[in-house]
């Protein structure tokens, strides 16, 4: 009975919004099935090996070591093990190659979002045929449910790795090279992602949220994000805008509808609509709002 709490604690890692064993899309489901296949095959191999070893130990007591018959039996066992190993490795390799194309599945012309890894934040550029409708956000990626979304993966500085376990596998972002990934969410929800490649001192802070919206909600979100920032309606907000524009913040960040056009840090046009306004802390699986706004422009990358 004492093992029951331990089992429950162990199994708690099989679900949640950052778990490869809780698939929220077809790509993640293919990888989840692959994980269980590997687990089952390796489990069977382990049981067989332990069984043969136990059989050999028991039989060794009743037979004379080094006899011709024993040598022939051992030779057949070793030969059989070699053939079985070749078959198992070939099968698992084929299964792995079969699952890989699911990471880049999708229709001919899906909506495209450029994902650029920075030290240490994520930049998302929502492309549109009309350049005036193209806009940027940071750290929080919105996608429509039931639709393939094409991600163009780029990096500005070092190698990063885009990984949202519930929705897809890992894919690297390499400076000077463009990779691609297809994201598809089968149900609404918020999924947590992480940079899976060590990229510097604040690597553990480089997390992201993928928000899967119903198509209607997603369309409304797009229209709202394309608008310029709202003008201040009271004295306190106007004073805040004055401080922002007169300080170095405006040199690093951009806010559509103002003279702030920096490109070093994240676009802050609709930062208030995001779940967080700054760093994503490494502890736990939940995002937390920054408690000290003065830190927003105190580090490289700005939105930390």
Helical percent range? 25-40%
How many DSSP H or I helices?
A: 6
CATH topology of the largest domain: Immunoglobulin-like
Anisotropy-based shape: elongated
Total domain count: 3
- Which sheet architecture does the biggest sheet show? 5 strands, mixed
The stretches of 5 or more residues where confidence is low (pLDDT under 50) are 281-304
CATH superfamily of the largest domain: Cupredoxins -  blue copper proteins
- The average pLDDT score comes to 81
Beta content comes to: 15-25%
Sheet/helix structural class: alpha+beta
In N-to-C order, the SSE pattern is HHHEEEEEEEEEEHHH
Key features of this structure:
single chain; 304 residues; alpha+beta; Immunoglobulin-like; 5-stranded mixed sheet; 6 helices; 34% helix; elongated
Description:
- The chain contains six helices and ten strands, in the order αααββββββββββααα.
- Helix 2 (26-60) packs antiparallel against helix 3 (68-99).
- The longest helix has 35 residues, at 26-60.
- A five-stranded mixed beta sheet has the order 3-2-1-5-8, with no helix packed on it. Strands 4-10-9-6-7 form a five-stranded mixed beta sheet.
- The protein has helices at residues 3-11, 26-60, 68-99, 215-226, 235-246, 249-252; strands at 112-118, 121-126, 135-138, 140-144, 149-155, 160-163, 171-173, 179-183, 189-195, 207-213.
- A hairpin with a 7-residue loop joins strand 6 and strand 7 (171-173).
- The model is unreliable at 281-304 (pLDDT under 50).
- The chain has 304 residues and is of the alpha+beta class.
- It has three domains: 18-103; 112-226, Immunoglobulin-like (Sandwich), CATH 2.60.40; 247-295, no CATH class.
- It is 34% helix and 18% strand.
């Amino acid at each position: 009975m004492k093992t029951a709490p331990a089992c429950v604690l162990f199994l708690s890692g099989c679900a949640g919004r950052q778990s490869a064993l809780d698939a929220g899309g077809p790509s993640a489901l293919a990888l989840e099935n692959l994980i269980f296949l590997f687990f089952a095959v390796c489990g069977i191999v382990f049981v067989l090996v332990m069984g043969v070893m136990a059989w050999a130990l028991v039989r060794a007591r009743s037979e004379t070591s080094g006899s011709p018959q024993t040598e022939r039996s051992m030779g057949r066992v070793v030969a059989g093990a070699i053939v079985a190993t070749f078959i198992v490795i070939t099968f698992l390799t084929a299964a792995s190659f079969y699952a890989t194309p699911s990471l880049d599945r999708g229709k001919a012309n899906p909506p495209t979002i450029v994902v650029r890894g920075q030290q240490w934040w994520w930049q998302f550029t929502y492309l549109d045929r009309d350049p005036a409708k193209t806009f940027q956000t940071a750290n929080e990626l919105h996608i429509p449910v039931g639709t393939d979304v094409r991600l163009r993966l780029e990096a500005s500085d070092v190698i990063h790795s885009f990984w949202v376990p519930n929705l897809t596998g890992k894919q690297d972002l390499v400076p000077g090279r463009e990779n691609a990934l297809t994201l598809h969410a089968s149900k609404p929800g918020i999924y947590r992602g992480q940079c899976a490649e060590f990229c510097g001192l604040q690597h553990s802070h480089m997390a992201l949220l993928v928000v899967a919206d119903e198509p209607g909600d997603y369309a409304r979100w797009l229209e709202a994000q394309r608008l310029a920032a709202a003008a201040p309606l009271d004295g306190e907000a106007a004073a805040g805008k004055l401080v922002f524009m007169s300080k170095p913040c405006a040199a690093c960040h951009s806010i559509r509808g103002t003279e702030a056009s920096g490109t070093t840090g994240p676009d802050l046009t609709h930062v208030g609509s995001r779940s967080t306004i700054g760093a994503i802390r490494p502890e736990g699986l939940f995002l937390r709002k920054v408690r000290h706004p003065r830190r927003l422009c105190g580090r490289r990358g700005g939105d930390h």
